[in-house]
Amino acid sequence: MKILLVYAHPEPRSLNAALRDVAIKELEDQGHEVRVSDLYAEAWQSQVNRADFPLLAPDARLVVVAASKEAFEADALTPDVSAEIEKLRWADALILQFPIWWYAMPAILKGWVDRVFAYGFAYGVGEHSDKWWGDRFGQGTLVGKRAMLIVTTGGWEEHYGARGINGPIDDLLFPINHGILYYPGYDVLPPFVAYRVDGLDAGGFEPTAERLRERMRTLATTPPIPYRQQNGGDYLIPSLHLRPELGDPGATGFGLHVAGGRNQEAGGAAKSNMSVD
Amino acid sequence: MKILLVYAHPEPRSLNAALRDVAIKELEDQGHEVRVSDLYAEAWQSQVNRADFPLLAPDARLVVVAASKEAFEADALTPDVSAEIEKLRWADALILQFPIWWYAMPAILKGWVDRVFAYGFAYGVGEHSDKWWGDRFGQGTLVGKRAMLIVTTGGWEEHYGARGINGPIDDLLFPINHGILYYPGYDVLPPFVAYRVDGLDAGGFEPTAERLRERMRTLATTPPIPYRQQNGGDYLIPSLHLRPELGDPGATGFGLHVAGGRNQEAGGAAKSNMSVD
Fold it and tell me: Where are the domains of chain A?
């Protein structure tokens, strides 16, 4: 496979950098081709700016959605953004690697999403009708490709458990896995998470590295999180509510959007991608 | 009250800018003092960089937590970050205003959090013991102050409902409301959300503006979301699991951390901040 790893950490000698190198080596040992977007090393521009849209007249009001659409259709995005889009088209699998800061991705990576996921490419794709609400959530430009997160956190695994104070890790990552990756069509694999990394000494590193190698060896075969396709019949249109007969009765929240329930989403525990509803 | 409004939109003639001005005028009409951090106008640096930590030796490895701690304790943060910390200390209430992009805040605002919420200020505060896990989640530097989000989204309100495909808006905002604002001690008010803003014409603006004015008039009196205090007895230490007898039996997810259940969190419906457990 061809794999793009988008990496966001400011320190070349960090644990994240070491894990990145472990992942790349294992992928290449398996015969895959790997490209890396190292956002800090490349001085990636984080924020959406007016200058992202060269076609916009100097006195025109910037409406980001409209400007993105215009620039994408005219092939007039800035070269840094266009290069990332080409990499995404090239890759069979996308890996986003980052430390979780304040329960989300670092700003530089959020800016990569905000700028690269252009209208007409990652959203605003497909028709809208009373049976179809755009090609998204399981359909779209990147369908047939795989995506996965590699993340680190200073906190304890227990604190990210089902009853942990931070909230469950799968819920914290849902806006990324479902809202950013599944949205334009990726099959999203369970994340690789390394906890308590501030205390990960040399003795703790190797088991973590080996766990990551195993995930890299199975990148092509690990069943994805069985999110429900938007246009596959599970959702009413246009409300986009999950049909009342699906999901646990009375349940709400992110877990509803995983066919067969949230236990299908846990890292390593996802043994099937079939819906049992 | 003294109020800090941190604002993140690139276009001065946007709907967000119009709503910001509505909020400021109403707050000032009520006798409040308002300061604004307009991140785009001030060319705020989005990403955490090595240059954020002037004390760090050129050949030293950047460990963000340690560097942040050292810089904060030595009063050696960069002037832009120090200025924001002073504003946060000054303000009785903090408002974060932004368009929801890809189910989260824009990169420039995430970078404001990543850089301004320094170790020793917003985290790493208080003692750790077998009965106390730091001053956080309801305790900390900013305790006694209020915070609130003003957000806009292109999507429909139904799509952010309890069974909507995007996930419930309160769950999508939980990592911000609970993980970023409640964490250092803020009392967090239900968010102000304007949906379908791309189609909000002049006729739709005034009702939205009036709804926002009402929220600004009640900023000092609206009951906060009744998140559970970490060290108040609801959580086991050190697992930080919610005690088994609390919350709905079998329930998981973010709603567990709201005393009395998730219905207490819905915007405008939060009539009480008392726990009914």
Answer: 2-224
Closest CA to B85 of B62, B65, B68: B68
- Residue A158 tokens read as 């227990």
Tokens of A197: 């990394």
Give contacts of A99 with chain B, Cβ < 8 Å.
Answer: 64
Q: Which residue of A has its CA nearest to B13?
A: A61
Cβ pair B47:A107 closer than 8 A? yes
Is B263 an interface residue toward A (CB < 8 Å)? no
- Per-residue pLDDT tens over the stretch A176-203: 999 999 999 999 999 999 999 987 766 7
Please give the class, per CATH, of domain B2-223.
alpha beta
A128 — contact with chain B (CB < 8 Å)?
Answer: no
Nearest to A179 among B103, B106, B240 (CB): B103
Q: How far apart are the first and last CA of chain B?
A: 32
- How far is Cα B253 from Cα B267, in angstroms, rounded to an integer? 19
| Inter-residue contact B206 to B182 (CB < 8 Å) | no
Which two tokens mark A254?
């992110």
Residues of A in contact with B242 (CB under 8 A): 163-165
Contacts of B206 (CB under 8 A, 6+ apart): none
Q: Do A161 and B62 touch (CB under 8 A)?
A: no
Compute and round to an integer the Cα radius of gyration of chain B: 19
Sign of the C-alpha dihedral, residues A117, B176, A19, A169?
A: negative
Q: Say what the ipTM of the complex is.
A: 0.94
In a mutational test of the B interface, the residue from A49, A50, A61, A110 whose CB has the highest number of chain B CBs within 10 Å is A110
Contact A40 B61 (CB under 8 A): no
pTM summary value: 0.94
Structure tokens at B260: 């009395």
Please give the Cα distance from B268 to A111 (Å, whole number). Answer: 32
At the second CATH level, the architecture of A2-224 is 3-Layer(aba) Sandwich (3.40)
> How is chain A split among helix, strand and coil, in percent rounded to 5?
35, 15, 50
pLDDT in tens, B102-117: 999 999 999 999 999 9
